[in-house]
Amino acid sequence: MNISSIAAHLSFPNYAVYGATKAAVTYLSEALRGEFGPRDVRVTNIEPGFVESELRTHISDAGLSRQVESMLDEVGALSAEELADLVAYATSRPRRVNLRQIVALPTRQV
Fold it and tell me: Which of 15, 18, 27, 89 is catalytic?
């Protein structure tokens, strides 16, 4: 189970490095599926949108901090419990079922 981000597929202004790291996780998941799928090893990549996390406290640039706060105020965020529920669901599928990619967004995030 890997946790990436919707940022692996969509660019966000001022977050090029963040998006690139998430794209790397998405690529790694795909490569691992190719390598280990023939041995019945499942690899799922969850790509959430906004999630309640410590991100807000790690932004030192005031402008970027306001940008993130504004977006979160507008669309909301998924909780850690909601992501954990997705992990539990994906891992509870029969062994022959691999949910290769799950994109999970707050309903108002487009």
Answer: 18
Of 6, 25, 3, the closest CA to residue 15 belongs to 6
Active site residue 18: yes
pLDDT tens across 9-45, in order?
A: 998 888 899 999 999 999 999 999 999 999 999 999 9
Contact 102, 86 (CB under 8 A): yes
**pTM (predicted TM-score):** 0.86
Please calculate the CA angle 7-10-16 and round it to the nearest 5 degrees. 65
Among 91, 110, 70, smallest CA distance to 2 is for 91
Q: Which two tokens stand for residue 19?
A: 């998006």
DSSP assignment of 3-32, as one string? Answer: E--GGGTS--TT-HHHHHHHHHHHHHHHHH
Provide the CA 27 distance to its chain's centre, in angstroms.
13
Tally Cβ neighbours within 10 Å of residue 39.
Answer: 6
> Could you give the CA distance from residue 16 to residue 19 in angstroms, rounded to a whole number?
5
